[in-house]
Amino acid sequence: MTSLWRRFRKKASRLVYGLYDKRLIQQAAGRHPRHVGVVLDGNRRWAREAGFTDVVDGYLAGARRIAELLSWCREAHVEVATLWLLSTDNVTRPQEELQPLLKVIEGVVDELAEDGNPWRMRIIGALDVLPDETATRIAAAARRTEGRTGMEVNIAVGYGGRREIADAVRKLLQQHAEEGTTIEELVEVLDVDHIAEHLYTSGQPDPDLVIRTSGEQRLSGFLLWQSAHSEFWFTEAYWPDFRRTDFLRALRDYAIRHRRFGS
Hints:
Elements: H1 2-28, E1 35-39, H2 43-49, H3 56-75, E2 80-87, H4 95-112, E3 120-124, H5 132-143, E4 152-159, H6 161-178, H7 183-189, H8 192-196, E5 209-212, E6 231-234, H9 244-256
Parallel strand pairs: 1-2, 1-5, 2-4, 3-4, 5-6
Helix pairs in contact: 1-9, 2-3, 3-4, 4-5
């Protein structure tokens, strides 16, 4: 009897959430973000609270949600999705913590690059802070998706917003130095668009919506330059527990906001 009751509750829950999801889709109709950024936070805390002794189990659980998230983005006609998997600060963790996380990331990127997936990937971040093996493997995986015409997926690994801006300025200066531009001439023409052209996300629209899981209400440097006019949506759910319903809630809330773009 107990087993029968559990099955009934499970089916009833699916039905209720299915109806709720349809309602959320209706409420978000007509105004979807072109670019969604997601901070996939809370994997370690999820593992500890779930009773796992190894936090790698949290990373693995979170990794299994990524393809689902991308499928939800495609359903919502999102053109660009940026997923933050590893920060520049994370790279300084002890090797016994960092190496298992890097292996999970390598596996995720390889899976996303498999034939049959419609998206094309771009690795964004300072690859020089990563072990050579990791940098080579994820860069090769991204190259395998270059011919695809679907949604663009940015995988932020070894990423920090301040580092990105510094890298952009460095590339800008190098370019003008090679062209023979003097500092005085550069100062006369330099504007925000010149810097934006050298960001990791050059050529893409800035994020309309940034989602962060785990209850933290800060960006921690994620897309620091690009998110100047983004809408933010925070949820208490840890990343491994993030559901389609949560994603649809974020889209619904985005759809009903009046964007002022800094005013």
